[in-house]
UniProtKB/TrEMBL annotation, chains C, D:
This is Structural maintenance of chromosomes protein. Belongs to the SMC family. SMC1 subfamily. The chain holds residues 1071 to 1233 of 1233 of the full protein. It is found in: Chromosome; Nucleus. It comes from the Eukaryota. It comes from Umbelopsis ramanniana AG.
Amino acid sequence: GRIIRLELDNFKSYKGHQVIGPFHNFSCVIGPNGAGKSNLMDAISFVLGVNSMQLRSQNLKDFIYRGGAMHDDQEAEGLSQRETRRKAHVKIVYQEDGGREIHFLRSVNSRGQSEYKINDKVVLWTAYNAALEKENILIRARNFLVFQGDVEHVASQSPKDLTLLIEHIS
Amino acid sequence: GRIIRLELDNFKSYKGHQVIGPFHNFSCVIGPNGAGKSNLMDAISFVLGVNSMQLRSQNLKDFIYRGGAMHDDQEAEGLSQRETRRKAHVKIVYQEDGGREIHFLRSVNSRGQSEYKINDKVVLWTAYNAALEKENILIRARNFLVFQGDVEHVASQSPKDLTLLIEHIS
Amino acid sequence: RYNLFMDAYNHISEKIDQVYKDLTKSANHPLGGTAYLSLEDNEEPYLEGIRYHAMPPMKRFRDMEQLSGGEKTMAALALLFAIHSYHPSPFFVLDEVDAALDNANVSKIATYIREHSNDKFQFIVISLKSMLYQKAESLVGIYRDQEINSSRVLTLSLDQYED
Amino acid sequence: RYNLFMDAYNHISEKIDQVYKDLTKSANHPLGGTAYLSLEDNEEPYLEGIRYHAMPPMKRFRDMEQLSGGEKTMAALALLFAIHSYHPSPFFVLDEVDAALDNANVSKIATYIREHSNDKFQFIVISLKSMLYQKAESLVGIYRDQEINSSRVLTLSLDQYED
Ligand SMILES: Nc1ncnc2c1ncn2[C@@H]1O[C@H](COP(=O)(O)OP(=O)(O)OP(=O)(O)O)[C@@H](O)[C@H]1O
Ligand SMILES: Nc1ncnc2c1ncn2[C@@H]1O[C@H](COP(=O)(O)OP(=O)(O)OP(=O)(O)O)[C@@H](O)[C@H]1O
Ligand SMILES: [Mg+2]
Ligand SMILES: [Mg+2]
């Protein structure tokens, strides 16, 4: 299978609804420092259910887009703006080897709670994870995601970490 | 003051005696991966007396050049080769603001012991360090050396580390 | 548990040397380097450590800590690709893994990815280096739109420019 | 102890914003970003932490962890340069500090170093990026001589090619 496109909605630095894609067999994400490239990787990790401990924010609600030039300036913004931005979601449009599309969506609200949907139907995390594992997307192992700054540590990781990784994928 | 040149003798990947320089106000060290650029920085750190805990080898005798394609193959090499390579040294030829040259040299032998010389005269570490401090080269602070991979950690260091650094330079 | 683990371990163990050689061969060193895994405990291996050893071409045996920044990155990527070949996930997302690589090594990584990406194995690679992204099939360009204070996206397919 | 420490702290505190602005101004953002230090304990500051805050141009207040790789590097270099201005050591050795920087930022660092290096303040910078080393006065080229299994050096002065 493969990722066809991503749809981001108020996720991190991506204001509003944005469609990103199509992705090919070998796609590169480019752009200047601070543009939002790693945020895109955070979006992929987020929608696949990666534990927020691994992501750059400990707090899931940090993933909701925040505009405005000052910290906690949202009282100053109009209430309607606040309403539209108190939740965020990411959707992966994924194509199975057979050709069928599956939509995986995860949202987060301003209380940091997540909801999972497969093809627009709300499901529990266990069902969501099972559907991903069926595609060989093993979130616990996370071996298919290499975050910025991590690659050199792969080579010098302690023997026990390497063992753990291999256990997770077996 | 400034560094005029470096003289390496069997230090890390630098076989035999090699002179590196002259250095200017703004010099860049370039070359492919694995060529020996960071080893040059290790040479500067070594000769300035940086604690071996900060360098890539915990063991000072790892800094002595080792040729040969196999680990511990030195029994296979001739004895005369072994004799020439059981010690290493690095010398900085430094020029004070007034124009006078000072030679700082540090050597290490196969038992991991260091000797310090200023202008060819053996001195104790305390005198060597004092001469460096007179030039504002403060080894304990090490704030003028940024090792590969360290720069991003400067920004995210804990508040206590930053305090320590400022204490050392004050 | 032992069987599952050894199944994965043996598969990766057999793959790692070939992958590392693919990444380290060059005109000067047509054979490439050497890499292998070793088990610290053979009875209950999943309780103990697995050691990874990688030796660039013409370099003597040395532990991983002595490798240069770029050499470590190449060794790490070889291990990641070898691990990935066991029960492969459908895609691989890499964020600036080429930061420590010189041009020659960036080019080897780009070629490896180009040759190994296909309908069943997709690569999404974030990179600042044109030596890498010029080999991609499509580019997802991210820029910051200051007026609306947001990231924005422009996609470009490179295949239409292929020779 | 308090006086020595506050002396250093105040000096760096006053410098940091200007240095950070020098590194972050551009045609689009002529004013640059904002940076400052704050003390956690005013009575005995050397016992407690010093916090560093840096905000790239047009970006809202955010803790350092939210900055991108390149933004963190620029903030770190500003801090290093500001610290260095207090009792400056005669030279500064930097090893691949530009790994996470895009071309525009590499160019700003190169320009800053070029403008601040002089007879009393020498920079020795290891870099893989031509955008940086092309601005140096001299290049120390390191290569590996495979036949004798050793690093070797070739020095080239660039100033003779200046316009
Ligand atoms: N919730 C949020 N709302 C708005 N902006 C955010 C949010 N979270 C992060 N950002 C912004 O996203 C930017 C970081 O983006 P990102 O890390 O994706 O950059 P990048 O393209 O990977 O850059 P680099 O090449 O330097 O690694 C930061 O400037 C940060 O201010
Ligand atoms: N004592 C030694 N004898 C011989 N070779 C050594 C010794 N110590 C280290 N080396 C070699 O030096 C090489 C590393 O050099 P160095 O780290 O300086 O490379 P580099 O030019 O900084 O590369 P990169 O651009 O990848 O960071 C390693 O390949 C290692 O084998
Ligand atoms: Mg990034
Ligand atoms: Mg290096």
